Amino acid sequence: MIKAGIIGGSGYTGGELIRILLNHPATEIDFVYSTTRAGKRVTTAHPDLLGVTDLEFTGNINLNVDVVFLCLGHGNSTAFLKEHDFSSDTKIIDLSNDFRLHKDADFDGKKFIYGLPELFKKEIENAQYIANPGCFATAIQLALLPLAKANLLENEVHINAVTGSTGAGVSPSATSHFSWRNNNVSWYKPFTHQHLGEINESIHSLQENSGNLFFMPNRGNFTRGILATSYTKFEGELADAEKIYHAFYKNAVFTQISEEPINLKQVVNTNQCHVHLHKHDDILLITSAIDNLIKGASGQAVQNMNLIFGLEEDLGLNLKAGVF
Ligand SMILES: NC(=O)c1ccc[n+]([C@@H]2O[C@H](COP(=O)([O-])OP(=O)(O)OC[C@H]3O[C@@H](n4cnc5c(N)ncnc54)[C@H](OP(=O)(O)O)[C@@H]3O)[C@@H](O)[C@H]2O)c1
């Protein structure tokens, strides 16, 4: 059994990791570290696990675990690793954006690999340190990478994506307050969202001269999931685009091309990304949908763990969508 540690286990992605790993047949949770809840049951933060686990949060860290997941806010992973020297055998999977960009990928002798299995599967299989992609970044890259691989992303791309409130983490804020968020929609960080950096780096690894990305992130009044619509000029027929996407994802376990228009609920609670293509005049519209906490975070982290440890890529990740 793989011994796993979770740092930041009382947060949203930490909670999802606990839920997934409790049902993972090749992993046992060694510890769930918390700065605020040491000694308390995990169910104090995640009451849905009542009757499922008696685990308690701890203030102690086992530096010799086989794998540790860092579920901390941006900047905190770097600080945490400076203070905690894990065994040289421990694999580290970081969910923040601390190590995602090329300029940050070498940290203290550790080389972090960008953990998007649809693009870097071989590198992940040989990695010890993973920078797990961002949630918007996952949905948008999976929509655009096939076109970049075919060198067809030369024109500007317009992207509109809406996320659920869990995307902002467990700490309440003005824009996650129920009274404001419920029955409401709003945009934020127009054209400047921080995930554009990692999206552009992946695209440029396939096509250097790609067109600019114009990204509008939106806050939706639901709790989880991301639906992204991306469109760009595309001279070919719809069937040409479909062929490109099917070829790119022919070995992908968790990215599916849907012939039918897609909706959020078909992927919420799963590690799937569903992608749909639509052609209008010379415009190709690509719709992609994921669960921000699973394919956008903790599920993808476990997918990466499976690849690193030579397990089936989907082990413990055959999850059921909520649907209704
Ligand atoms: N939410 C998403 O959809 C999503 C998707 C992809 C990536 N991410 C990224 O994943 C990371 C975690 O996100 P999240 O939504 O789970 O955040 P979160 O709900 O705010 O949880 C983070 C947890 O980290 C712990 N913590 C806070 N400061 C700490 C520190 N200085 N040292 C150690 N532990 C500390 C806290 O738990 P304790 O009080 O128990 O210590 C906190 O609950 C972030 O970098 C986020 O950007 C999130």
From TrEMBL:
Family recorded in the similarity comment: Belongs to the NAGSA dehydrogenase family. Type 1 subfamily.
Any matching Pfam family: Semialdhyde_dh
Active site location: C135
Gene3D superfamilies recorded: Dihydrodipicolinate Reductase, domain 2 (3.30.360.10), NAD(P)-binding Rossmann-like Domain (3.40.50.720)
Keyword NADP listed: yes
Record-linked InterPro entries: AGPR, AGPR_AS, AGPR_dimerisation_dom, AGPR_type-1, NAD(P)-bd_dom_sf, Semialdehyde_DH_NAD-bd
Protein name: N-acetyl-gamma-glutamyl-phosphate reductase
Free-text function comment from the UniProt entry: Catalyzes the NADPH-dependent reduction of N-acetyl-5-glutamyl phosphate to yield N-acetyl-L-glutamate 5-semialdehyde.
Pathway(s) served: Amino-acid biosynthesis; L-arginine biosynthesis; N(2)-acetyl-L-ornithine from L-glutamate: step 3/4
Catalyzed reactions per annotation: N-acetyl-L-glutamate 5-semialdehyde + phosphate + NADP(+) = N-acetyl-L-glutamyl 5-phosphate + NADPH + H(+)
EC number from the UniProt entry: 1.2.1.38
Keyword tags: Amino-acid biosynthesis, Arginine biosynthesis, Cytoplasm, NADP, Oxidoreductase
Chain ranges of the Semialdehyde dehydrogenase NAD-binding domain: 3-127
Subcellular location as annotated: Cytoplasm
Enzyme class, spelled out: oxidoreductase
A GO CC annotation given for this chain: cytoplasm
Predominant cellular place of this UniProt entry's protein: cytoplasm
Origin superkingdom: Bacteria
Record flagged with keyword Oxidoreductase: yes
A single GO molecular function term of this UniProt record: N-acetyl-gamma-glutamyl-phosphate reductase activity
One of the protein's GO biological processes: L-arginine biosynthetic process
